[in-house]
Structures are given as C-alpha cells and as structure tokens.
C-alpha cells in the first residue's frame, strides 16, 4: 500500500485557498494603506474592506451594515453574548439560554457571566446530538436576554433546528444568536429568512486565513463595544482593520457559499462510505444523527482504544484526523460533547472525527478504509481494556 497524504480535519482548520492568497497578496505589497487615511492608498483599502463586507453580507442574506469584522469566531461569540448580556441587564434581563454542547467560546463566556451574576440555562441534547426546540421554549422566561444555540456542532457535526428555535425566540421577543462557525459553506444560510438575529463565523474554517471572523448583528440590535478605541467598524469595534484578512475572507466566503448543493453531492457519498466502512468494525458506533449532520463530518467511537493513540498512528499513515475538537484534543478530559450525548467516559476517549471536503477522493476513502481496521486491530491487541472486554470482565 502506497502511503498517501490526506487532510481529513477541515473542522479544525482549512488550507488558505490559492484565490484567497492571490487576493490578499497586493495588500501586503503595494496596497498597504490604513483604511482610515484620506489619501488614495487609504481610500482604496476602505473600498476593498467594503467590497468584502458586501460579499459576506450577500453570502448569508444580510445587509452590509449588519456585518462587523472581528479577529475570530471566538471573539464574535464573546461579543454577541457579553454585549447582549450587558445591554439587557440594564432592563433587568439577566438570564441566558444555551446548550450543553456548545463550543467553549460560548460555554466559557456563559460561565464567566454566571460569575458576574447572570443565570444560564443549559438545554440538553438528545443521544443523536440534537436540541429539541421545545426545551428552548420551556426555558424562556420574562427575564431571558438571549438564546445562543450553535448551528452545527464542531465535533459530531449535527445540524440544529435553527429556524424553529429562531421562530420561538421571535415569538417570545428574545434575541437569538447562533454560532455558525462550522456551518457556513456547508449549509445554505439566510439570516433574514431564517430569523437569525446574530451569527458568528470564522475565516479559517472556509479557506481564509486564521484570525479573521465576523459577527452579523441585525439592525436594531444595539451591542456595546467589545474593544474601545478608534472609529473602525462603525464605531463598534476599534482597531486598525486587518485589510488582507478581510479581503481574503470576502473571496473565501463567496467561494464557500457557491454551489453548496453540488459540493455536498460529491462529499456526502464519500462520507457515507467512510461511516459504513468503519462501522463494519465490531464495537463501534456513529456519534450524532446520521442524516442531520454536516456533509463532510463523521464521528465514530471505537471501543477498546484511546483516541490519541489512534490519531498518532493515522498520522504515520499520512492521515490528519481528530478525536474531538481541536481545542480539546491534547487534553485528557473526554469531550463534553460526547458526554452530553450519553457516552460513557471510556467510550468517549476512543473517538475519531474525520471532516472531509471534495479534495478527499474516492481513492483516499479506499485508503482510509484500508488503514483504519489495521490500526484499530493493532491498538486493540495492545489494549488491556480490550482484553478485559473480550473476556467479559468489567474494565472500569
Ligand atoms: N465555534 C465553533 C463551533 C468552532 O468550531 C470554533 C473553532 O473551532 C470556534 C467557535 C472558534 O473559532 P475561532 O477559531 O475562529 O476562534
């Protein structure tokens, strides 16, 4: 078997595309003006920022003035949640609703606010990794300031009933924010049609560079500044604009949101073949609903092995994969996402996430399906847990 090089970890980050890089380069070389300067070099930079803002707005069905550039998805989440909390606390609204399996950019922000005297309700998720809109509805109170529910989960890829949740929030007059960092470019998003009040996205998940994000804020919603200083971003988010990154994001989001259906028609069958192939191994299970998931995502628990060892061995075969989110792999704590769908600690430890795009070919899928059984067999043969499982002994 000839060794291949396969990147199957696009949920962690993506490669900057050639088109993005090409669009960015002049902004390092010749078009380096500060967008606040009044001479042509500055005005050109301002023009290019606004062109990128229009592209982002178009890609998600928003108006350009509702788009704010930030430094990353985490900043967008922080701003949406802390900003709304601060603003509505003035009206006595100090309750926030989120889910147990959000990204830490949301969960840790909510925990911070709890320490500041806010109350947070964490709605549960089902064993399929789905949130029940009724749970959100039942959690809403007179003093609820914000509902923040992720569009698609970063580990198990499950897509949430965003429109139903947005409709409930609208009816109850509660602001609805969604962390769509994993969803943009993989599902069609139209914030107006879907009733989304605020949305976070991140450039590095859609082939732009790391360190650029967006917060969409529906007009009429007032957020206090997260960063104080100059008048950039309509006086809302100070700091000299990262022009190359903003321009790159404009190109990236335009490409990512074009032909989503065609892209998914290529990716989904390959992803399904991977799921079916890996599930042939005994003592494996797919985490998250099979259909209501991102087209390129699969997350499978493989009993009797450690996720980290699996990743290291896959790396030797040239396969980049993940065992949880990029932030939690490297830590020995089992993923809060996998625990939230009811997995036991020892099973959550042995999970594999692959997140593929069109560049993972059918031949690559064949290769992965050849490698994984070998690696799993090897790891299980060395695993005391697996030995006990096979003898029917308790291994806790
Ligand atoms: N939200 C989700 C769902 C994510 O997957 C990530 C990154 O993995 C983030 C937020 C944070 O985005 P960034 O890395 O741009 O801060």
Could you please describe the fold and organization of this structure?
By secondary structure, this protein is an alpha/beta fold. It is built from 16 helices and 12 strands. The chain has helices spanning 18-24, 26-29, 40-60, 73-89, 104-115, 133-139, 162-171, 191-194, 232-235, 243-256, 260-279, 307-316, 336-340, 345-348, 362-381, 384-390, and strands at 6-7, 67-70, 95-99, 119-123, 144-148, 175-179, 198-202, 213-217, 284-286, 297-302, 319-320, 351-355. The chain has a 7-stranded mixed sheet with strand order 2-8-7-6-5-3-4, sandwiched between helices. Strands 9-10-12 form a 3-stranded antiparallel sheet. It has a two-stranded parallel sheet with strand order 1-11. α5 (104-115) links the parallel β3 and β4 (119-123). α1 (18-24) runs antiparallel to α10 (243-256) and α4 (73-89) packs parallel to α5. The protein is globular, with a radius of gyration of 22 Å. The model is unreliable at 325-330 (pLDDT under 50). Residues 72-74, 77, 103, 105, 150, 154, 179, 181-182, 202, 204, 213, 325-326 line the site of pyridoxal-5'-phosphate.
Low-confidence spans: pLDDT under 50, at least 5 residues?
325-330
Termini separation = 37 Å
Number of E-type strands: 12
How does the helix and strand content classify structurally? alpha/beta
What is the subunit organization of this protein?
single chain
Largest sheet: 7 strands, mixed
Radius of gyration: 22 Å
How many helical stretches?
16
**SSE series:** EHHHEHEHEHEHEHEEHHHEEHEHHEHH
Q: Looking at the structure, what is the overall shape? A: globular
- What's the overall average pLDDT, rounded? 96
Each distinct ligand: pyridoxal-5'-phosphate
